Amino acid sequence: MSGDICKVCGLPADICTCSALAKERQVVEISAVKRRFGKLMTVIHGIDHKMVDIKGLAKQLKTKLACGGTVKGNAIELQGDQRQAAKKILIASGFAENSIELKY
Ligand SMILES: [Zn+2]
After folding, report:
1. Distance from first CA to last CA of the chain, Å, rounded?
2. Distance from the alpha carbon of residue 52 to the mean position of ligand 1, in angstroms
3. Is residue 7 included in any domain, yes or no?
4. What's the gap in Å between 54 CA and the centre of ligand 1?
5. Is residue 35 in a domain?
6. pLDDT in tens, 42-81
7. If you measure from the C-alpha of residue 41 to the centroid of ligand 1, how many angstroms do you get, rounded to a whole number?
8. Structurally, how many domains does the chain consist of?
9. What CATH number does residue 37 fall under?
10. What angle do CA 15, 19, 20 make, to 5 degrees?
């Protein structure tokens, strides 16, 4: 992403902190929902896709958790119940631990 200009603050992407600040401020909800055939999906919502590279984040989650998943607007859907592991990955990538809510 180097060489890019941030659309929010106008600074070069490598010194812009918008995304880091956005991650700290966002309240993210992680829940598990039952889909067809009783399969569980982990749904992460609350991430502002204008401020955070949600697709990159989804890719990171899928790689680290070795599962399938998709991005739907502001939500990341992952196959299986990945709530705990997904939370750890979000924290590692800059989200504030106390703003991530696990739903049961
Ligand atoms: Zn910025």
Report:
1. 36
2. 10
3. no
4. 16
5. yes
6. 999 999 888 888 999 999 999 999 999 999 988 999 999 9
7. 32
8. 1
9. 3.30.780.10
10. 80
With cut-offs at 50, 70 and 90, classify the pLDDT of residue 22: confident
Residue 9 lies in a domain: no
- From ligand 1's centre to the CA of 3, what distance in Å? 13
Q: Which domain holds residue 60?
A: 27-102
User: Is 79 a domain residue?
Assistant: yes
Q: Could you tell me the distance, in angstroms and rounded to a whole number, from the CA of residue 27 to the centre of ligand 1?
A: 19
- For 21, residues 6+ apart whose C-beta sits below 8 A from its C-beta are none
Question: Residue 57 is encoded by which pair of tokens?
Answer: 């984040």
Say if CB 19 and CB 26 are below 8 A apart.
Answer: no
**For 104, which DSSP code?**
-
Q: Strand 28-34 relative to strand 40-45: parallel, antiparallel, unpaired?
A: antiparallel
Which residue type does 16 have?
C
